[in-house]
Amino acid sequence: MTGQGEKAIVYKGILFDLDNTLLDYDRSEEIAMREALAEHGLDPDNASFWKQFRHHFIRCNTVYWLERFERKLHISKVLELSFRDAFAELKLDGYEASSLAESYWRHFCRLFVPEEGAQEVIAQLHGAYKLAIVSNGIGEAQRQRLAAGRMEHYFEALVVSDEAGCAKPDPRIFHAALERFGLKPHEVLFVGDSLRDDYAGAVRSGIDFCLYNRRRSPLGDEHRPAYSIERLCELPGLLQSRER
């Protein structure tokens, strides 16, 4: 909203988070993990095994993922250590963690699982706005997944944390995207699903934030995004209404 007599600034560029905003990371990870485990003789359809394995793997993987910059861990090592520790906690012997990590990564990088409406919305916005992605991920995977869905050509820039050397909510990764755009913070809207990474990073960078509240989670008073949507198909209408 703008005050009386105040002219709204029309956005010239839209930045998007990728995982769980344009692509369904959770579903992609599950599919790739199940395929990798089955490929190595484990049974991901066994509900008890799958639940226990997921619990241990996610906990281990979260630790190594957060430590990757400090310890200079390549994604292959992050995955290998995560599989190794998960298997150790499950007391499973005889499985090569590095081979499983390689299988998982191969499957994951080939998967294109879009969020509902993502392809249609991006195609609609393309040409009307400069589009770019700012992702806390791995460039190899993000590029291959977008290419698998033939979506990479829509974006003028793909700024990924492992290549930028910093991650959201660090403002530097947003500044890198703005430099490639040639735009100022107030000329850009950032769309993402994470309050911790996306919202906080946008606020620190002086960029308006649109929360993609895919889980319809309630917001506390400490979070005040400029906009909030529950479905991506709401975004074009939101942008058009703001520019009237």
From TrEMBL:
UniProt cross-references to Pfam families, sorted A to Z: Hydrolase
Family matches, as SUPFAM superfamilies: HAD-like
Domain of life of the native organism: Bacteria
Name assigned to this protein: Hydrolase of the HAD superfamily
